[in-house]
Backbone:
């Protein structure tokens, strides 16, 4: 077993010499028992997933929590792997709950502080995603309900600059779209982002809490945006989600692990520290449900260019049919309106990206009846080439703009996945 | 088929003569096709529940929504019956998501306005719980995901007064508990309450939206409190829920349909309009997770009097073991602390009530790191006899008070269920 420094020391005094000392694994375990329990965890989880496990105590005889124990086997313990070429939470099936948490880095943050932050969070995320509490976690029972938890780390424009590397050209707030935007600074650009997704809101809340706490004074919470999707997938099979307009949303997606991989994941064209990474454009889009109520179904379908029931394009019968943008009716009019969302959003070639939208429905401000919308999360290799042209077309003309208003906008680089023994941002902070 | 007035007429002009005209069924269908579809719905839903259903269109050929169609069979269509002696949403298994929505009645509200409100909402709730959109619902696909939806209607002290009947003595804000309360008016007493629960937050959002919209100018939204529970029941089997302290919550419950029925449901001692009803005490309890972090597991278990892992009392081994409040250790000290929550909360005889707690985890105020707590929902026949004595003991002494602060409080009468052909509040508004 390899000796690693206690994590409290990592947080308080930094780990600058860690890589230099040849410590390739940053599990930062403080005791041997901890490591042993950690090793046992996968089996526990696997057993739990089959429903065969009995309850195991998460505390030692003296009541001290034993980190790394799966205390509560049963449903909800499905989990996703943390380590790999890419981070989880981008191209996998979206879990029903999300918290996007943006942080500000305090003045004076340097590369060393960033390394401490990434070291702590890498350890936290790996533990949480595998069903173990974080090292200082006194509620391991909450951590044990993994619920397919993914925590995905993004960085804003300040981080590469602080790390002393060149900032990607696209890693900047989007240009203004004055014809549609009513942006509120409270949902603006952040320095660091955690995207926390799971099948259980309790799991999301617990992970969020532990990650915020672990970071100590290294970050300040800037905003938190909570969202949800329908927890019942396959309704009917293949409908990705319905937003609060009742529309099927996020239908046509690039094949992120196949022929379209280069649209989603940075390759050799990118600097070393971004290879295997991606980008996230997060737009908070208010949806005026009261105005939407005044549109009948025909108008709604015309605005979208798709049927409300099946999600099929107006020129087709199946959700996955390709919209026929050239089709005309007997009078020679396009069957899909000139300003229909599906036409204006339609991108070919590089103008495509992966979407993972979530609804939000927050308590209305005093006197209002509704405060709802969409957290539109789009992932691609280069937002300037892929996302912005589409957004520009939509800003220029899109019937849906009658009911939707972007009120928040931020862009993050999604770091590559952490390989064995690596921290997130390993090559950025090397 | 019985003729019923179109619902728009109900909303706009009232239904004062409806009962007098012998209209016992208030399904308020506007077309015969609607009724036929409504009749088909149960079978559709049943078919959907077995997973055997194919997708059925929710729109007619011209794109008009056909209310009453189950448009999207598949998972998520389990449903609970609306009509019966009691309202749903009290003693049934809690669904993972809740919105408690309190409303204010405008000045000048009279019995007739109340009857219109109850007529509209009764129809809405029955439709929504059975997977049909409300009559003006243009998103029937969202309504089709019933997700065990329950909508439970409560009334505050103003309603019986407006209806010209005597107000129950217990139907009033709780007395002040100055040693613990830090009540914020924004979570205070309302005139009417809808408790909306489902397995899907999209279903909750849609139902909330439709119910608020249907009520038109008859009500104003006062506050909305959203909450959640772990969606994976039986972790391990029998653990009701864990709150964000990691505690097992809501363990010992009265047998609401058996020997303890009189503790939960109003009987012959109550006025006619309340028989079969109950009461809800809703306390919003902030939980100081940052302070809780500074308590170790032994201190936490001592404060609660239960083990954190299994939820068993400190004097037992199983969740359902009865706490032995007299047990002493070798030194003669009580094994369950004098101020432990489980001891102080322990009620016998009539001092018992049904709890259905939900966690909340809202975005923190600017600069804060956490804004979490519990929506403590307690149901009983008479809060003055059953709830207040327990609350008084807890206010006087309870170790958990170190970490918890009541910041909202309201009391509602839960109306009896609607029988066939009845509206909610039928006997109140007769």
Residues:
């Amino acid at each position: 077993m390899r000796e690693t420094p206690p994590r409290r020391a990592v947080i308080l005094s930094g780990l600058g010499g860690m890589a230099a000392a040849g410590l390739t694994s940053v599990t930062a375990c403080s005791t041997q028992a901890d490591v042993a329990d950690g090793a046992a965890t996968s089996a526990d989880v696997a057993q739990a997933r089959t429903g065969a496990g009995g309850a195991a105590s998460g505390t030692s005889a003296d009541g001290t929590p034993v980190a790394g124990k799966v205390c509560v086997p049963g449903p909800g313990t499905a989990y996703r792997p943390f380590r790999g070429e890419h981070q989880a939470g981008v191209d996998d099936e979206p879990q029903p709950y999300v918290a996007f948490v943006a942080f500000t880095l305090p003045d004076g943050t340097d590369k060393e502080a960033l390394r401490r932050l990434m070291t702590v969070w890498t350890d936290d995320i790996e533990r949480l995603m595998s069903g173990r509490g974080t090292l200082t976690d006194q509620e391991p029972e909450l951590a044990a309900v993994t619920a397919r938890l993914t925590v995905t780390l993004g960085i804003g424009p300040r981080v590469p600059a602080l790390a002393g590397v060149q900032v990607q050209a696209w890693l900047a707030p989007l240009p203004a779209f004055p014809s549609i935007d009513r942006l509120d600074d409270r949902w603006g650009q952040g320095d660091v982002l955690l995207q926390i997704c799971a099948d259980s809101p309790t799991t999301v809340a617990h992970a969020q809490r532990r990650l915020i706490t672990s970071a100590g004074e290294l970050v300040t919470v800037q905003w938190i945006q909570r969202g949800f999707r329908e927890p019942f997938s396959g309704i009917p099979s293949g409908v990705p989600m319905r937003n609060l307009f009742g529309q099927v949303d996020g239908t046509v997606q690039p094949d992120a692990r196949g022929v379209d991989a280069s649209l989603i994941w940075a390759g050799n064209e990118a600097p070393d520290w971004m290879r295997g990474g991606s980008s996230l454009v997060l737009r908070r889009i208010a949806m005026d449900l009261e105005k939407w109520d005044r549109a009948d179904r025909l108008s709604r379908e015309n605005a979208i260019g798709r049927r409300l029931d099946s999600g099929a394009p107006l020129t087709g019968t199946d959700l996955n049919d390709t919209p026929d943008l050239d089709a005309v009716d007997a009078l020679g009019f396009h069957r899909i309106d000139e300003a229909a969302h599906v036409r204006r959003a339609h991108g070919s070639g590089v103008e495509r990206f992966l979407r993972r939208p979530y609804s939000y429905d927050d308590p209305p401000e005093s006197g209002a009846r509704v405060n709802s919308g969409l957290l539109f999360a789009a992932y691609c290799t280069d937002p300037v080439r892929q996302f912005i042209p589409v957004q520009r077309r939509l800003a220029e003309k899109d019937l849906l703009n009658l009911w939707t208003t972007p009120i928040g906008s931020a862009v993050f680089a999604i770091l590559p996945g952490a390989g064995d023994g690596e921290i997130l941002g390993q090559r950025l902070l090397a």
Observations:
- Residues 33 and 226 of chain A are 37 Å apart (CA to CA).
- Chain A touches chain B through 76 residues (CB under 8 Å).
- Confidence is low (pLDDT under 50) at residues 1-73 of chain A.
